[in-house]
Amino acid sequence: MLRDRIRCQSLQDRLMSADEAAAMIEDGMTVGMSGFTRAGEAKAVPMALAERARNHPLKITLMTGASLGNDLDKTLTEAHALARRMPFQSDPALRKAINAGEVMFIDQHLSETVEQLRTGQIGPVDIAVVEAVAITETGGIVPTTSIGNSASFAILAKKVIVELNLAQPVTLEGLHDVYIPSRRPSRMPIPVVSPESRVGLPYIPIEPEKIVGIVVSEKQDSSSTILPPDEDTRAIAGHLTDLLLHEVRHGRMGYDLQPLQAGIGTIANAVLHGFIDKPFHDLKMYSEVLQDSTFELIDAGKMSFASASSITLSAPMYAKVLPKLGEYKPHLLLRPQEISNHPEVIRRLGIIAINTALEFDLYGNVNSTHVGGTHMMNGIGGSGDFARNAFLSIFVTKSIAKNGAISSVVPMVSHVDHTEHDVDILITEQGLADLRGLAPRERASAVIKHCVHPDYRDQMQDYYDRALGRGGQTPHLIEEALSWHQSFREAGTMRLEGRPEKRTIRQA
């Protein structure tokens, strides 16, 4: 079996244990690891590295594609092995360390990390650790369920450790399209002209001599914790599909729409699920992650092709898809994330981008990353890559959180990831605000009317009415703009009624 998987004869003597491979990683190194949204990460070597760090303290800078599965970020954090982390994470233990200032976290657009590596602005990568399903006759690395930044990590690193995962199906080979842009300023256009475009190689091309070790593993990817659609997410999906049907009726697109992108998570997954019962057909996806809803749409005959950088599924969907991957392969393609998220391609293809907000404000500014303006949640991910360059930039969220103690629509966001200039449509379960062609005052009226929860609508209208008295193209009460966040911090709710100090602010 190993000879079938390691087809380059000169590499068949590079087999070693995870401990031996981890011993090559030294204190102060920059390490690039495979993995994108809990898919395709190396599994044995990071665990061995964490164990080594417990006994022989060391700290590394860890770069990945996005979040890691199998509690790897948690394990590395608790072993105090991380000095610096980029460009995305989603682990509670690591999040706590980041917000305590123990781990320096660099939150980046997912299309930018390897661009900065390639030009020497960050890095360099000392060693890359990449999960593979096979190694070709020429030493090419065949990735597993994600590509992420693995290709450029392997190409740019001084040394490469391959983690050969025998639990990953060999049918993954042929699913990948590895294309690396040429260097700037003489870069040629990226030749992706449709989601189906194949422009690269089905493996990561590197010199076999760079592979210093091969570790065998048999651990599965972590499954996602996608919740089924609820009343609110079904309402959000309904508002979105009504908008798209409106666009079709006005001749701005056909029933095959434009290529779709959707962020990771329960809300985005549920929103895409809502397309199943609508008259759309021959849908295509150009996104970062293929979730459960992608395969539901393929099974329903609604989606004909999906291109992304990883496959991240719930446990039941993994059990269904992986044994039948050969049947799905004609409909799928995995790319490096600098291509799946590249602004040039996103703008060319005219993507409908659907991403989730933590909060948004009266004028359409969106916060995707920071709770209360200070505490990192996960990171901006690819939402900025898509929002700024999409044909339609859509942000969705439930209108309230924490059983109504938090309004997801606020007078001013506590942190800005996507400015009003990059946002076209805002949707909550309450309704939809189409911001296209509206001035700030018109935007505010649409947001209050259609997106704010009834429990907060009068409070928001009161704020806006008094802000109008101050004038300005974008009216605000600067002394009160973040008072809702302050109220939640002090009293556990954004509702201001009955709080004497808030009434004093209003009277002043």
Major β-sheet strand ordering: 4-3-2-1-5-8-9
Taken as a percent bin, the fraction of beta residues is: 15-25%
Describe the main β-sheet briefly.
7 strands, parallel
Low-confidence stretches: 503-508
Distance between the termini: 77 Å
Output the number of helix runs.
19
Label the structural class: alpha/beta
**Helix percentage range:** 25-40%
Spatial extent as radius of gyration: 24 Å
Number of strands: 26
Please, what is the average pLDDT? 95
Note the overall shape. Answer: globular
Could you please describe the fold and organization of this structure?
It is globular, with a radius of gyration of 24 Å. It has a seven-stranded parallel beta sheet. It is α/β, with parallel strands linked by helices and 508 residues long. It is built from 19 helices and 26 strands. Mean pLDDT is 95; it is low at 503-508. Helix 9 packs parallel to helix 10 (292-299). 31% of the residues lie in helices and 18% in strands.
Could you provide a short overview of the structure?
Helix content is 31%, strand content 18%. With 508 residues, the chain is an alpha/beta fold. The strands form eight sheets. The protein has a seven-stranded parallel β-sheet. It has a five-stranded mixed β-sheet with strand order 10-16-21-25-26. Strands 11-13-15 form a three-stranded parallel β-sheet, covered by helices on one side.
Topology:
Elements: H1 2-5, H2 18-22, E1 30-33, H3 44-55, E2 60-63, H4 72-78, E3 82-86, H5 92-99, E4 104-105, H6 113-118, E5 127-132, E6 134-135, E7 141-142, H7 150-156, E8 159-165, E9 211-217, H8 231-249, E10 260-262, H9 266-273, E11 283-286, E12 289-290, H10 292-299, E13 303-308, E14 310-311, H11 315-321, H12 325-328, E15 332-334, H13 337-340, H14 343-349, E16 352-356, E17 359-361, E18 366-367, E19 370-371, E20 375-376, H15 383-389, E21 392-396, E22 400-401, E23 406-407, E24 409-410, E25 425-428, E26 431-434, H16 440-450, H17 454-468, H18 483-491, H19 500-507
Parallel strand pairs: 1-2, 1-5, 2-3, 3-4, 5-8, 8-9, 10-16, 11-13, 12-14, 13-15, 16-21, 17-24, 21-25
Antiparallel strand pairs: 6-7, 17-18, 19-20, 22-23, 25-26
Helix pairs in contact: 3-4, 4-5, 8-9, 9-10, 14-15
